[in-house]
Design goal:
heterodimer; A: 3-stranded mixed β-sheet; B: mainly beta; 5 helices; disordered N terminus
């Protein structure tokens, strides 16, 4: 689809889906609790020590966004992503932990920042900045991921208390989420069909769970409606593809954004930490209410979702071009592409926020009038992507969005975590997307591997065969694989 | 699976666009409700009786001023909750659930499913699998002879009192509870009786004894011929087996109607295996409490293993909390109803300021916010002038500070009816608890929980996450009556128990519902009736979860959706 008719396409899609439309909650409104109007006025001065300055004009941004509205929304989202949040914005969470479920601390924290258990950054961009904002992070930008419940505070990097994770880049994230949504819909439709057949035939029905050419094992639907999930592979039991985080445990940009705002900055989104769920307007006890509105989250999501597709570098060096071309073939030949799928086909590029698979605590479809939709095909980098015979955009993410065991008995460098995350075992990770990989060193989920060669050699478990083939190559062929991977860069 | 609220059609979406892009329509402007100060979700309980397929009244003279129960259980193996509703002088009826997941609540009446000879004179009904055949049997509480019905295939029932050697008695039976005692292969059945109408001076001071049929370890077909034990009755209106002291040995909690007893009080009976039931007395710590006891509900609100009890009455509802300040663990309770805002002592709406009359009580999470709510049905006994004539049912929603907030009117259940028994179950399997209230001399009220109210009264939104859990065991006590389920989300642990009894003449067996709030997954642990603990089961929210004893992993069940209708 060209960009000239995307709005029409989007509107039709919206109407078919029945999205409810209304404006974003982006007005400033009352934000300070227990503070006087004088202070509020002082905080509205141009020099006030606040990073968040809401755009009243965005109150009219709603539903199927025009190009202009999207541009304005994304600009506001970019400002938020870069904003160094202050206490006047609501940064800090003295009475709350980093947990994704609103959780009180046993005693108030005396510190704004705590490098390990958080808050650990003033801004999103503090960690997602390499080589540009929205990019990845250096080792120094690692986050220490903990549930934040019983042992929310920890002052050691000992892996029994947290999983140390490097910051991922966010380019192409909108397409990634759309792919995951379609894959989830496909898998759940297979389950539904199997159940229907089992009920009709009074016989168990086995169905292979495959979507976009990626196999997730199989399930057995029983005539009584019970589903046997013992043989599913690489996906949660609810068959929801969760494409974000190194582990693949976050369903949407929206969910990730809300989690991260609280964890890293103590900025609490109203849609999870507000009075509806907690009974308190100021759950974290920092004297600020409405720290992050639904409109703020929507803007942050829009900015992330519209980050460009990572390009493939065309080296000016002829030797590099030749080696990269050869390495690309070798990449396939030795089986890297079995998991690092070069591209997955995407049926629709319309990004609707909120999405269909979030649950309570992250805004859901129909839950609020703050829904928006926009077509990612209006991005030149998306519009330029090739399409398959069905007209589906081929998203070159180099991932299957599936989780794999990455450690075996003899190759265990990536097995340095001790804590399962959201029911996923410590040494199981989602296939990293390789688009942009050349711009995101250091590598590995901990960001502790300096070269691509080393991180390939660290692949064990399900990737062991391909890794062994890589090691078995001659020096020139191994180098060519690196040459190829070095062409997968982030935009600057 | 996450059943979602129905989406608007294209036409409605167009209307929404037009309305919001320009100006509110007159209808929309007029439909904006007054905002509620209550910060949490208030469920919209839509009255759908007319379209539910249920047409039922509980009627009759004085004997049927009490009773009016409903049994909730699956009688045809499709896991959907079916209903047996008492009729008093009218017929009791079985209603078979034909609802599709997320669809309208729809039942078909099965007019001949219950044996004709026992359909009338029924006050209440409780399900229990007495013979361990995997099909739930049914106990009908009646005036002058209870009925024990053996469950057969496809919601068929046959009279089985003689087969099980359970003497039906001649009493006016108003309450029931069942449990499996340690080592028993058959359940212990407790029948609570009301006034002995044949006694001189009846009805005052003439309460009938209650009867407990003790289960046995004998694995042959149930035979209760030698099992009956009479225990002192004080005009009992609700019974509940409860593990009040976390000992694993059930005790029998009894609530009694002071209207008719002399020298009576609330009771707690110790049932040591192999020994006769013995009441807790003052020396044991038990304190005399005299109320117009109508119904019992149990919940372990803080998951400390020591349950709290709601006791309905005329006037104040009691919310009893174990007083643990004593050195020894003794059944000493203090009333926390006032502190928690749960007294529900008079109508919360309308002009009638006389005391309320409470009947059925049930703890449940109607708004899926991970906070336990309390339902109390209300209604004048008949025409008692000292008590409120218009007495709407209560929906007390749990708040973040551990109190309760009255939301009956906002939720839509404040009807001018005389409520009695009730069923709280997810009738259309959308994750939200629906409600059936049996009314005296009036149509049953069927409420469909449509989700949280919004300021636009025509729209609702999804509430919190949820789970529904089904336990099962092999051979004996297949429904795991007496099991405790712990549901952990973050630092919060919620507790649920599988039980048969309590309420007012109304019992249930089936999926156990728990709201999860914003948690999208949970760890579930089961303490089976014999005290053994299950492994931790890790489950995803918004699912029906099947937990057979011994299973290494939880299983998921998916109800038939509209597109899968048979």
């Amino acid at each position: 689809m060209n960009s000239s008719n995307w709005r029409q396409h989007m509107m039709l899609g919206l109407l078919a889906a029945g999205l409810t439309l209304a404006g974003l909650a982006l007005s400033d409104g009352p934000r300070a609790s227990g503070e006087g109007a004088t202070q509020q006025a002082a905080e509205d001065t141009p020099w006030a020590e606040r990073a968040v300055r809401r755009d009243p004009a965005l109150a009219t941004v709603r539903g199927a966004l025009s190009a202009g509205d999207l541009k304005r929304l994304v600009a506001y989202g970019e400002m938020l992503f870069a904003a160094k949040f202050t206490t006047a914005d609501g940064a800090g969470r003295p009475n709350a932990t980093q947990a994704i479920i609103p959780t009180k601390r046993r005693r108030p924290s005396q510190q704004m920042f705590a490098r390990l258990s958080g808050g650990d950054a003033a801004s999103c961009a503090a960690c997602h900045n390499d080589p540009v904002m929205g990019g990845a992070g250096d080792f120094s930008a690692n986050a220490f991921v903990s549930e934040g419940f019983a042992q929310a505070d920890f002052d050691t990097t000992d892996p029994q208390f947290s999983n140390e994770r490097n910051s991922n880049h966010l380019f192409g994230a909108g397409l990634v989420e759309l792919l995951a949504r379609e894959m989830t819909a496909d898998l759940q439709a297979l389950r539904t069909r199997a159940l229907r057949e089992a009920r009709t035939s009074s016989q168990p029905v086995t169905v292979k769970l495959e979507t976009k050419g990626v196999a997730f094992g199989e399930l057995v639907a029983k005539p009584d409606g019970v589903v046997d999930l013992d043989r599913i592979d690489g996906v949660d039991e609810d068959l929801v593809i969760r494409p974000f985080s190194q582990k693949g445990v976050i369903v949407s940009l929206r969910q990730f954004t809300i989690n991260a705002l609280n964890h890293h900055h103590g900025m609490q989104a109203e849609e999870r930490f507000g009075a509806r769920w907690t009974g308190e307007a100021d759950f974290d006890g920092d004297g600020r209410t409405r720290e992050v509105t639904t409109g703020d989250v929507t803007a942050l999501v829009a900015w992330q979702a519209t980050l460009a597709v990572p390009p493939t570098l065309k080296p000016t060096d002829a030797r590099w071009r030749t080696a990269a071309a050869s390495g690309s073939k070798t990449f396939d030949a030795i089986g890297c592409a079995d998991c690092h799928r070069r591209a997955l086909p995407l049926r629709s590029t319309v990004f609707r926020d909120p999405g269909p698979y979030d649950s309570a605590g992250t805004l859901r479809d129909g839950e609020s009038p703050d829904g928006v939709a926009f077509d990612l095909a209006q991005l030149p980098s998306v519009n330029a992507l090739p399409r398959n015979a069905d007209g589906h955009i081929l998203v070159p993410l180099f991932s299957d969005l599936k989780r794999h065991q990455m450690v075996d008995r003899t190759v265990d460098r990536l097995g340095n975590e001790l804590i399962a995350q959201r029911f996923v075992a410590p040494s199981v990770f989602q296939t990293s997307e390789l688009w942009g990989i050349a711009s995101t060193a250091p590598f590995g989920h901990r960001g502790d591997i300096t070269t691509l060669d080393e991180v390939i050699r660290a692949h064990g478990g399900a990737a062991r065969t391909s890794r062994d083939r890589y090691i078995g190559l001659g020096d020139a062929d191994r180098s060519s694989v690196i040459a190829f991977l070095k062409t997968l860069v982030l935009p600057k | 699976m996450m059943p979602r609220l129905p989406r608007f059609t294209c036409r409605l979406a167009l209307a929404a666009v037009a309305g919001l892009a320009h100006a509110p329509t007159a209808a929309a402007a007029g439909s904006v409700a007054k905002p509620s100060p209550f910060p949490h979700d208030i469920p919209k309980m839509a009255l759908v009786t007319d379209t539910s397929g249920i047409d039922h009244r509980y009627t009759g003279p004085w004997e049927y001023f009490v009773g009016g129960g409903v049994a909730t259980f699956d009688c045809n193996g499709d896991r959907r909750p079916d209903l047996v509703i008492a009729g008093g002088a009218s017929d009791a009826q079985l209603y078979v659930n034909r609802s599709q997941a997320g669809g309208a609540i729809r039942f078909d009446v099965a007019p001949t499913a219950l044996p004709a000879a026992v359909r009338k004179r029924v006050l209440g009904a409780y399900p229990i699998d007495i013979d361990n055949d995997g099909r739930k049997d049914l106990v009908l509480l009646r005036v002058g002879g209870n009925a024990i019905l053996k469950g057969g295939p496809d919601c068929s029932f046959t009279r089985a009192a003689r087969r099980f050697a359970i003497a039906p008695g001649r009493a006016w039976t108003t309450s029931f509870a069942a449990t499996f005692e340690a080592g028993a292969s058959t359940p212990t059945l407790a029948f609570g009786n009301y006034v002995d109408r044949a006694a001189p001076g009846s009805p005052w001071g003439t309460c009938h004894d209650n009867v407990v049929f003790r289960g046995s370890a004998d694995r042959t077909p149930p035979n209760y011929a030698e099992a009956a034990q009479a225990i002192t009755g004080h005009c009992t209106l609700s019974l509940l087996f409860t593990d009040w002291d976390r000992s694993g040995t059930p005790a029998l909690r009894v609530t009694n109607d002071r209207q008719y007893y002399r020298g009576g009080e609330e009771q707690l009976w110790r049932l040591a295996p192999g020994r006769p039931a013995r009441p807790f007395r003052r020396a044991d710590g038990w304190r005399s409490l005299k109320i117009w006891g109508m119904g019992i509900a149990e919940a372990d609100l803080d998951a400390d293993g020591f349950p709290e009890y709601a006791l309905t009455s005329m006037g104040d509802t009691k919310l009893q909390v174990l007083d643990r300040e004593a050195d020894d663990l003794r059944p000493v309770y203090r009333d926390a109803a006032f502190a928690k805002g749960a007294t529900a002592h008079r109508p919360y709406t309308g002009g009638d300021l006389k005391p309320s009359t409470g009947w059925h009580a049930a703890f449940a999470d109607f708004n899926n916010d991970a906070r336990t709510d309390l339902l109390i049905t209300k209604g004048n006994v008949e025409q008692m002038p000292e008590f409120a004539a218009t007495d709407p049912d209560n929906l007390l929603l749990g708040t973040h500070d551990g109190r309760f907030h009255e939301a009956g009117a906002d939720a839509g259940i404040a009807l001018p009816t005389r409520g009695r028994g009730a069923a709280v179950a997810d009738l259309n399997m959308d994750g939200r608890l629906d409600l059936v209230i049996v009314n005296r001399d009036a149509q049953v009220a069927v409420f469909q929980n449509r989700g949280a109210r919004t300021q636009d009264t025509a729209r609702q939104r999804e509430m919190g996450n949820w789970l529904q859990l089904e336990l099962s065991q092999a051979d004996i006590n297949r429904d795991a009556v007496g099991a405790t389920i712990l549901i952990k989300t973050g630092n919060l642990t919620q507790s649920r128990r599988v039980f048969v009894g309590g309420g007012h003449a109304s019992g249930a067996l089936g999926f156990v519902h728990v709201g999860l709030g914003v948690a999208e997954r949970a760890v579930v642990r089961v303490r089976w009736p014999d005290g053994d603990w299950s492994p931790d089961y890790r489950v995803f929210a918004n699912n029906f979860v099947i937990l057979p004893r011994g299973a290494a992993k939880a299983r998921y069940w998916f109800p038939p959706a509209a597109s899968q209708s048979e």
